[in-house]
Amino acid sequence: MAGTANAAAKSEMIDLTNLSPDQLMQIKQEFEQEMTNIQDSLSTLHSCKAKYAGSKDALEAFQPDWENRQILVPLTSSMYVPGRIKDLNNFVIDIGTGYYIEKDLQGSKDYFKRRVEYVQEQIEKIEKIHLQKTRFLNSVIGVLEMKQAAALKMIQQQQQQQQQKRAPSLRRKNSFDDVAHTVKARLTCGLPVRALSLSLSLSLALAVVYVQSARCPLGRSRGACIV
């Protein structure tokens, strides 16, 4: 247990901001698995503590006048046979792995009391480790979410820059489309040929001026911009 606590303490000294998102994700998955194992261990210890405490309480309730008292003796978890108490000061205790010991009433009470206290100490130690790992896992998740948000923001900025680069070409295309739409509308209205020719020349001239102004920034000579 002490080695695990030291390992958790060393883990907290890692500078998480220097790790990549993939490394942080791997650490997160490993700690989540460890947290699951710790939870299983705590559940097992709490079950053992409840079993020992139940045996201790049963011995505390034992009365001296229970000799020859009828009881139900369990054969399985759901099957019993009737029996009678013959010896009030002799108990057989299961100590695990198929071993049993005999103790008197007071010795049996002391045994289960010690077991309850020992299991409680183990529970407290593991809960401290669980708390340390929980704090570290929360730190990992916080840094991981921060890095993921920064990466998403960078992608959005790149997309905006690409859209801004495409905008001038779209504006030039829309200008030519407007000229074509104007000519088509005037043809539909049945304008005289002369008026239509003059309108078309004016529209094309405006389009040429727009293209030249786009290709020739302010401050350069007109001859330097002729293509």
Please name the defining characteristics of this protein.
two-stranded antiparallel ribbon, Helix Hairpins, 4 strands, 227 residues, 4 helices, disordered N terminus, single chain, mainly alpha
Could you tell me the number of beta strands? 4
Structural domains: how many? 2
Total helix count? 4
Q: What is the arithmetic mean of pLDDT?
A: 77
The CATH top-level class label of the largest domain: Mainly Alpha
Q: What is the molecular shape?
A: rod-shaped
Rg calc? 43 Å
Under CATH, the topology of the largest domain is which? Helix Hairpins
Sheet-strand content, in percent, reads: 5-15%
Main beta sheet strand tally, sense and closure:
2 strands, antiparallel
Tell me the series of helices and strands, N- to C-terminal: HHEEEEHH
How far is it from the N-terminal to the C-terminal residue, by CA? 81 Å
Description:
Residues 1-5, 7-12 and 218-227 have low confidence and may be disordered. Strands 1-2 form a two-stranded antiparallel ribbon. Strands 3-4 form a two-stranded antiparallel ribbon. It has two domains: 18-161, Helix Hairpins, CATH 1.10.287.370; 163-225, no CATH class. Helices cover 70% and strands 11% of the residues. It is rod-shaped. The chain is mainly alpha-helical.
